Amino acid sequence: MANASLAHLSPPARAQAELDNAERVRSLRRDRWIDYPRASEALRLLQRLLETPPRERMPCMLLHGDSNIGKTLITRKFERAHPPGFDRRRGVEQRDIIAMQMPATPDQHRFYTALLFELKAPHPPRTSLSTLESLARGLLRDIRPRMLIVDEVHHLLGGGHREQRASLNLLKYLANDLKLSVVLVGTDDARIALQTDAQMMSRFTPFELPRWRENDDFRRLLSSFERVLPLRNASNLAEAAVARFILTRSAGLTGQVSRLLNDAAEIAIADGSERITVELLEEAARVAFA
């Protein structure tokens, strides 16, 4: 097959489109990065935080939006751009970014346990809170991260008022004590949790990932998807009728857009049509969103 017939695809996707059906379907099931302006802006702001020199009041960020809107994909991409290294002079691992999840039941003991897990620091199960705190702070001082990313921060609302305040104070303490930027990631409920503390609201600059609307940005997103789906015929996903159907069935959520298009692309590979149509999207939606 001549590459000229695959002009609608990016160069890596052209190579994938020439593989057999089974390989192409496997490629659809892998995570892939689709760039779009709001995600690029989030990455730019994260980089700006990372490059901030240590100071008394470190800038922090709240990345929020509906579930399945793409928040975690953004932070994962940012982490991949800053992999760990090794400081041979000091004989310790160097990590610019530490990423963890807020425990489902938030309290300080569980938080430090989760943090130490990410730091690969085993400890006895009944270790006291003071020992966990001391161990975590000591390791962080050795590793010298410049950023702590805490995902699923809306779990704060799963605790009582006292637990919420204690967890928020802990995050503020780590930012002050270690002179690092803290990035909180969660649903819009995360803003509710932060609103209980005026100091936290003033320190954490909110950055929202809104649901998609029917506009040029959404059509550009669909065009970007089309360039990476290994289909041998052009689908013209940005056409009005196709775009409108995708927007409606995905509810404007990036993750749902991706799932719908991947499922439709798999059907298009299996039936030999090699392009996504509204009819194939309807078939994929019946299964995906039943």
* Overall 3D form: elongated
Main sheet attributes: strand count, strand direction, barrel closure:
5 strands, parallel
Count of runs of 4 or more consecutive helical residues: 13
* Largest sheet: spatial strand order: 4-5-6-1-7
Care to describe what's here?
This protein has 290 residues and is of the alpha/beta class. The chain has 2 domains: 3-30 and 212-288, no CATH class; 37-209, 3-Layer(aba) Sandwich (Rossmann fold), CATH 3.40.50.300. 51% of the residues lie in helices and 12% in strands. The protein has 13 helices and 7 strands. The protein has helices spanning 11-17, 21-28, 37-50, 71-80, 108-118, 129-143, 161-178, 189-194, 198-203, 216-228, 240-250, 254-271, 278-288, and strands spanning 60-65, 85-87, 92-94, 97-101, 147-151, 181-186, 204-209. It has a 5-stranded parallel β-sheet, with helices on both faces. Strands 2-3 form a two-stranded antiparallel ribbon. A hairpin with a 4-residue loop joins strand 2 and strand 3. Helix 3 (37-50) packs across helix 4 (71-80). It is elongated. The two termini are 37 Å apart. The mean pLDDT is 92.
Please give a handful of descriptors for the protein shown.
290 residues, two-stranded antiparallel ribbon, Rossmann fold, alpha/beta, elongated, single chain, 5-stranded parallel sheet, 7 strands
Summed up, what is this model?
The protein is built from 13 helices and seven strands. With 290 residues, it is of the alpha/beta class. A five-stranded parallel β-sheet has the order 4-5-6-1-7, sandwiched between helices. It has a two-stranded antiparallel sheet with strand order 2-3.
